[in-house]
């Protein structure tokens, strides 16, 4: 079996075990335990389905045999690109049961991203839904096979066309399922926000990830009578694990999957299923705050609204309780690990003005100035962290590892934060050049590279601009080559290259030249900062 690496130094691992964070649990055991304890409790609701814990486990087992009978082998990586449908959970638990390694992609990803994940993870399988929001993923699968021939198996949920459907997988009744994973094994690859260049893959182990969502479920006070609504795309780390669908299932709660985070889709589900907790990114929280006062749906079951992924401003945060009648919880997390929460019983001022404090007493947090020295409490600095669920390395990426981790294993988050009394963090901004567009992280560098491939683009610099709705939007400054192209044509060019829609620049500004200094060219970072500053001064 091809094993993936993620390891903590022996001393740290021993400490995390001794302190009860890593309890030797695996995803398969967690589901088995819940299925034994409450086989008939409804675990998953979505589409037309209502599956109990018992049914979820039985379906996952059947599918696990199906994947292996189909020819996938334990250790193989399988890209999972599914929207919020109940099959997401059966597929993922089936992959765990078969010792296959899911690689999570978002429904918004297109050929460029999927091919990159497939190559980097050396994936052999790809599981997609037939279509979602008008997009046909079978076409994408076809294109992927052209680019990455190592993908030997495509499985489609829904009408499979020329591919194999989930229901059409071989029954595999005579296939022996492998022994369960070791808890310290890598369970799956998660996708990084991609602050520089292409997204990196994040190997998470059973031990570390299960700790993060078990502790999150405790912080969020989930019980078997809680109902968690997954409104954001469930493959994202926030709705997956903070506490997300996994934390909810761990606690024996019910998971409800909304096909979209819009009030139109989510409000009726909240009413029908008596949802108690859900999570949103700030722009969606604003939309909900706008829609709630006039909705005909009863939202009174909602006890907690979590907001995270990007900064939620105090003015907006203050409105949550009066408008929605529930407790706000700010969540500042990252797929690499560290997650901070305001606690449900924190004073209102902490809840509205901070992004919370870490999950674990063993989350080590450093806040350093540019010279690497700790800053005093209340002053802004670079956030570095290590702990029982923060990775020590990306998958197969020595260059990124050398940049992102210190020699003693701290992860450089790229975020600039202040530490307040009690260890609460306030996010001030970030050091890197990515754009946080409504919680979707976009690397300026990656977009510039795509723009430069257009024959009419001489040079390009992509920056973030403040945006009332998105928080930040992307703006590409372009020096044309020859005849100036139309902005719409450039955007279409980006889409046709197979780039996720959210990465297509929101705004394009043509300029004649970039600034250089007397000494020569300025760095890309200074260039982007200068362009942003001058643009904002003019408007
Ligand atoms: C400001 N910036 C924030 C916040 C994340 C829970 C919640 C979110 C994520 C996530 C996650 C922020 N205020 N409240 O994985 O489990 C920015 C920071 C951070 C980056 C990570 C989770 N919450 N951010 O958003 O991997 O810049 O994870 O480093 O997508 O989002 O992005 P991502």
What does this 3D model show about the protein?
- The protein is α/β, with parallel strands linked by helices and 539 residues long.
- Among the domains are: 154 residues, 3-Layer(aba) Sandwich (Rossmann fold); 104 residues, GMP Synthetase, Chain A, domain 3.
- It is built from 18 helices and 29 strands.
- The strands form eight sheets. Strands 2-1-13-12-14-15-16-17-18 form a nine-stranded mixed beta sheet, sandwiched between helices. It has a five-stranded parallel beta sheet with strand order 4-3-5-8-9, with helices on both faces.
- The longest helix is centred in the first third of the chain and has 18 residues.
- The site of ligand J2J has 24 residues, from helix 8, strand 16, strand 21 and strand 22.
- Keywords: Ligase, Nucleotidyltransferase, Transferase.
- One of its GO terms (molecular function) is nucleotidyltransferase activity.
- It comes from Ancylobacter tetraedralis.
- It holds the Pfam family AMP-binding.
Structural class: alpha/beta
CATH architecture of the domain at 27-180: 3-Layer(aba) Sandwich
Helix content percent band:
25-40%
**Average pLDDT rating:** 95
Q: What name does the CATH topology of the domain at 27-180 carry?
A: Rossmann fold
CATH class of the domain at 27-180: Alpha Beta
